[in-house]
Amino acid sequence: MLLSAYWHGLHRGYYLSFLTITLCLAAEGQLESALRGRLSLGGQKAWDWVQWFLKMRAYDYMCMGFVLLSLADTLQYWASIYFCIHFLALAAPGLGLALGGGSPSRRKAASQPTSLAPEKLRGE
After folding, report:
1. Model-level pTM?
2. Start-to-end C-alpha separation, the chain
């Protein structure tokens, strides 16, 4: 993300936005793993809509770094709305862990079937 910010230019607002993206992606992954699988099909569709809506609001919030460009202006704007996305993104991983969600690598490992050891295959 830092390389991407450098690619766009040397404005400090870019760096704030790109660093916030990593926080939001971690929050999204934690909540996805903790909540979506526990919901019914209708609940999953509702969750997908809520997740999409929150993601779009987070993009609006983060894009202010690209619009305002400066560190002070971006922080002043975010402070005017009480750093709401930052607080939500910081609370989400804790909520995801409390509800039993794991890290993306644990989710991937848990979803893949375990293979038989070569010794067992030869013995059968």
Report:
1. 0.70
2. 50
Q: Are 62 and 48 in contact (CB under 8 A)?
A: no
Q: How far is 110 from 67, CA to CA, in rounded Å?
A: 41
Burial class (CB in 10 A: 0-12, 13-18, 19+), 1: middle
The answer to whether 13 touches 64, Cβ cutoff 8 Å, is yes
DSSP 81: T
Rounded Cα distance between 32 and 101, Å, is: 8
Q: Please write the tens of the pLDDT for every residue from 66-99.
A: 999 999 999 999 999 999 999 999 998 888 888 8
Residues 99 and 35 sit within 8 Å (Cβ to Cβ): yes
> Are the beta carbons of 20 and 62 closer than 8 angstroms?
yes
Q: Which of 5, 55, 14 shows the shortest CA–CA distance to 32?
A: 55
What length is written for the chain?
A: 124
Non-local (6+) Cβ contacts of 89 within 8 A are: 20, 23, 24, 26, 27, 58
